[in-house]
Please model this.
Amino acid sequence: DQQVKQNSPSLSVQEGRISILNCDYTNSMFDYFLWYKKYPAEGPTFLISISSIKDKNEDGRFTVFLNKSAKHLSLHIVPSQPGDSAVYFCAASWSAGANSKLTFGKGITLSVRP
Amino acid sequence: ETGVTQSPTHLIKTRGQQVTLRCSSQSGHNTVSWYQQALGQGPQFIFQYYREEENGRGNFPPRFSGLQFPNYSSELNVNALELDDSALYLCASSLAMGRLSEQYFGPGTRLTVT
Model:
């Protein structure tokens, strides 16, 4: 039973345009959500997070939106750059503390065309 | 400040054999989590170690076991290997009182079971 779902396996966008990556979750106990970026032969690297008490968090070109009632979050990248091409994982946890476990989605492969 | 390192990078084993994977934490980090990422899937939490004790476990059988050493490095041991154990194994280190956003992943060990 997948508790974190990334239903689109891939996304292709033109450089300079917006990339929107979606994620849904089923467990209402999740309280903290994170996005990770992964390049081949590297481990996932933290990108941005959001607590369940917020509906938006912004960091430079990256914005995460959370809709708790719909159990849905999205990552917006504006403007998209070729260096953003990577696999993006949505992850959820019961708390923001480092002793919590992460539940990941399957990932979305983003390709940004020059 | 050194990052999280894992060894070996790649490994090929035969069904029924045993394997040990190693992880060196980022300097100063005292907590290590292990994840299994099967092909086309997101990472799945195996277990976490803090102060040389298991501090939480995911849905993995007892043949997956671990150790944490006084220098906070860690090992993942898998006995009686099965074909489905073929995956990328990731470790992540953090401070116990830190935040998930400050947890850092290593590049992983690619295990192939034939």
